[in-house]
Amino acid sequence: MSGKDHLPSSRAAHDDEAVRRFRSHLLAERNASDHTAAGYEQDISQFAAFRWGADAQPPFEWARVTPEDARNFLMAFAGDGAKATTTRRKLASMRAFFRHLVRAGAVEANPFAGLRGPKLPKPLPRTLSVADVTRFLKAPEEDLNRRRKAGLPVSPEQVYASLCDTALFESLYSTGCRISEVVPLVWRQINFSSGAVIVTGKGAKQRLCILGKPALKALRNLREKAAERWPDGGADATAIFLNERGRPLGPRDAQRRMKKWLAVAGLPTDLTPHKLRHSFATHLLDAGADLRSVQEMLGHSSLATTQIYTHVSVEHLKDEYMKAHPLAQRRNDE
Question: pLDDT (tens digit, 9 = 90+) per residue, 274-303?
């Protein structure tokens, strides 16, 4: 089922005095729109039909509604295949209606008050494809090259910013780290010979992360340029990621810079640095990486947290299957 309301509605519920007063309350006191009020009324009409029958006539005996009636109503939606969001909306509507009746003295207690709606499924993390990540990571350097070819001036500050941003985002994607784990890094934490970095994650827990060749190259270029710009720019105790004035970048600075390069790369600008972490995990699993190894790389304390990326991988595989398999295409068109 797609989440549509398949349970019948009472055709006469809008004539019930309590429903009319509740609608007036929504419009006048809660400043609800006509559309919102109509949605509440639809939910109440469905409950009336469920409790007394679709042909029952008002006034309805709201005071005789029990918690069991309320629970059975919600279970009927779940049994009919309604989405969790639909069932939760019904619960919110009925809870608000009976709360109004309690305040008006029409009923003694709210039968929906103690009920909980079904849990909403966690949305799958939004990720970038490998091609999109590659395009994004190349954006700072390619932007500089375009400016040079066009004969436009390129300042030392622009060159440094390009190198800094390339190193920052290469490091994020290479390690799968959170932005809060990368921006505080200092040069001594990078082991260029082994291609590794120790970061401090949640709960002050430290873990070893791997830096690939592109990230190491970008970091070497950045350190060389930083040493040219400031006396201690490449010193062991100096922060790696500095702005053009030599001050350490913060997470919000990184987010602003990411938006800039997403736009240059022609990608959605609402993506955040955390999406590089999601992409890192998904791409590793797509390539056959062991789930527990990915868990350690991400610094997850629970394997269940990492497992959500397996669902992303499965969805990706299903999409590719539907696009490529001839019988799948044929059946999808039928």
Answer: 999 999 988 988 888 888 888 888 888 777
Considering 202, 213, 325, 331, which one is annotated as catalytic? 202
Task: Please tell me whether residues 164 and 234 are part of one structural domain.
Answer: yes
d(CA 93, CA 96): 5
Please, are residues 220 and 192 in contact by the beta-carbon 8 Å criterion?
A: yes
Q: pTM here?
A: 0.61
Catalytic residue among 99, 259, 274, 316: 274
Does the active-site annotation cover 277?
A: yes
Domain containing 198 equals: 130-274
CA 201 to CA 204: how far, in whole Å? Answer: 6
What CATH number did the domain enclosing 68 receive?
Answer: 1.10.150
Q: Which of 244, 274, 304 is the last residue of a domain?
A: 274
Asked whether residue 247 is domain-assigned, the answer is yes
Q: What share of the chain is helix, strand, coil (3-state, %, to 5)?
A: 60, 5, 35
Together in a domain, 95 and 159: no
Is 300 one of the catalytic residues?
yes
316 annotated active-site: no
The number of folded domains in the chain is 2
Reported as a single tens digit per residue, the pLDDT across 157-192 is 999 999 999 999 999 999 999 999 999 999 999 999
Q: Is 331 a catalytic residue?
A: no
